[in-house]
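User: structure tokens for this one?
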Amino acid sequence: MQDPAMHPDTGDKLAELLAKLQRHRALDVRLEERDETPLIWAVSENYHDIAVTLVEAGVDLDARNTDGNTALLRAACEGRAELASVLVRVGAKLDLQNHDGYCALILAKRRGNREIVDMLLSAGADQSLSTTAGVSFEAPGHSPKVSLEGRRDALLERQIIDAIGMCRDGRMAGRALGKYINRAPEDRFVSTRTLREAYVRHEASPSPSAPNYVPLDDGMELGIVWSAVPEIARAISSLLCLSLEDARQDRGGHLPEQVVERVQLEIISPYGVAHIWGITGHRFVLSRSVGPDRSEILGTILVGRSKDTIFFFTGRYNNLRHSTIRATVDFAQPDGDKPEHRWFDRFAFPEIDRFKPKAYHQLANFVVAKQQRGHSLSRLLLSTIVEKYARDHIAKRGRPVEHSQHLLCGRGLWQIGDPPWLERMERLGFYLRRGAESFFIEHDWAPLPQLRSRQTAEVIPNVVYNRSFGLPDRYLGPQPEQRSDEHLSDRVPEVIRLSQEPAAKLQYFQAMFDFT
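Assistant:
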């Protein structure tokens, strides 16, 4: 029997995959040749970013092609060490055999891919398996090969990644990650080896041989991680869920308890961290060594991969493209059974074409562990991202790129934030995007949860709530010099009016931070 057959020229597969994703709006499509899944193909031909995006989207890790090969088998055969590590870390089965009986361990050793052999052995791969022809781990033979390389087309690859984001189905096949409120502080402590293996390496980096993270003082480091790795997803979820506890009204915050718990369960559970945000965001993690092979996750921040990304929109939509939002969102959708009640009548926000500032990456989940606050770690996290990851900032200063991860282009960072958050962000150097505030609008058919004073238990009227966060006063006095051409100054009178309207309650501020 022969080893798994190799693919011939695959120049049309990029276009074939894009067409199938767009036509079927599903991730379980198959390519014509060898009935391959997109993941098997992407691993085989070294479309690294496409492969990891598919993993994060929840595709079946152990699906087979006509030869019985899985993505991990193909990674072992083609020497894709980093992709093999990602597949193992997110739960791919180690010991599946193809139709000729080859498992990943035998294939990796036969091909001379020692790094993958060591990784599989460390993960517990079975050394006793053999092929139908009697080839074993102890006697694998030696059959080196030149690894496959699919043709490169940056535009098609980007379009495929975008299409994957539109097609994700939420199965998270092969991973033991759940939807639960993660209040376990011990989850923030992870294996340093797992953390290092979870760091992204961008194949198109200008410094491909550099480390795939940034070492900092005092045993700290910063890097972009694959958030589909279960241990990493649980650590980040713990950080986010425990931080959000402070926002509960019963603990002195500004949000009803049921709202906080819904977000903790649906959005920032381990499942949510791994799946909802992984496709469209760079997940930065700040950590510190706390032992020979133990690291503490100190903070995290999620930054949009594309300047066009909107992470969330009115609670019903995640991971949108601003440029296509009119086609993606049904702005006339009813709210319940009565067509005259529309969902978007619940909100007042900037006009869609100007909702997001141009050339800014959205950020979200900007959190430092409660136990570590007061040590300027938020400033360190933010400043390191600018100094080490902002492309134009680095180029303007003539500095080399010190890592092999993705860079952020564009003008800066942009955030939609809850009202109490603005003051803290301004202290970090963010500035208010004037006129971009969003409001909830109450109706008799859509009342808002009541907020009550902790001291008197009296209901807090919307106008009083708005005033507590500086509206309309911040627009009625002397105004600071505008720092951007992306302000919505012509909408400021409408914001003033809404802030004084009894049925309107402040939902979000917007703020920006410039790279240079």
